[in-house]
Amino acid sequence: MTSLLSVRDLDVNIGSVRVAAGLGFDLAAGERLAILGRNGTGKTTLLATLAGLRAAEAGSVALCGESYEALGARRAAQLRGLLPQRHIDAFQSTVLETALTGRHPHLGRWQWEGREDERLAREALAAVDLAGLGSREVHTLSGGERQRLAIAALLAQQPRLYLLDEPLAHLDLNHQIAVLELLSRRAREEGVGIVMVLHDINLALRHADRALLLFGEGRTLEGPVAAVLTAESLSRLYGYPLREIPDGTGRHFVPA
């Protein structure tokens, strides 16, 4: 079976920072991968490279078995969606209009959004607890509401692969869990792939199947969460001792 995302011998640098050296992994349909690392190790840079928006120094990235060059920008945008860390609203627009931007990869050059596009956008807004706010101006939203709107636009896009840079930023605990459960349902029921940069180890342990650790200087570790997320590897990752606490139904990590 063709993987949604195939990474082979990938070298990624940003300035003098070596993000990854010889990185390789496959992400299958329905799998969730969490990327963890300290500040400045290049998580955002790696995500942009996986999205085909930044060239790697060496190696290859394939989306649904094709290179980004072979797919072209339009087809790639239909297959993979990227949630950036920051959202820039240069012009006035409503919540619904912003959610509808997720439909643009599926429209012709001169085509306007139709009823089906609006239905999908409204469903996406409802999924992130923004139903009824379609007519609100984007600039009036709180940080958490704006983050959920960005996720709604991504849901409306309906990609096969979701690439999420800190999707829980600005969200309260209730919405953090709701978003992670929503993404997990999409992975389980629709077979989408999820790659997400997270900072909460325990949420990664609970809502990811695989983990990728960026240690700096190009050193990485990738594999199933049970094997990768250990007290030893996480203490080395963050430069601070962590202790694992089993609770009978799962595992948790706390500072030692």
Question: How would you describe this protein?
Answer:
With about 260 residues, the chain is of the alpha/beta class. About 35% of the residues lie in helices and about 30% in strands. It contains 9 helices and 12 strands. The chain has helices at about 45-50, 70-80, 95-100, 115-125, 145-155, 175-190, 200-205, 225-230, 230-240; strands at about 5-15, 15-25, 30-35, 60-65, 65, 80-85, 160-165, 195, 210-215, 220-225, 240-245, 250-255. It has a 6-stranded mixed sheet with strand order 6-7-8-3-9-10, sandwiched between helices. It has a 4-stranded antiparallel sheet with strand order 2-1-4-5. The chain has a two-stranded antiparallel sheet with strand order 11-12. Helix 6 links the parallel strand 7 and strand 8 (about 195). The longest helix has 18 residues, at about 175-190. The chain is globular. The N and C termini lie far apart (about 40 Å). The mean pLDDT is about 95.
Concise synopsis of the structure shown:
The protein is an alpha/beta fold and 256 residues long. 36% of the residues lie in helices and 28% in strands.
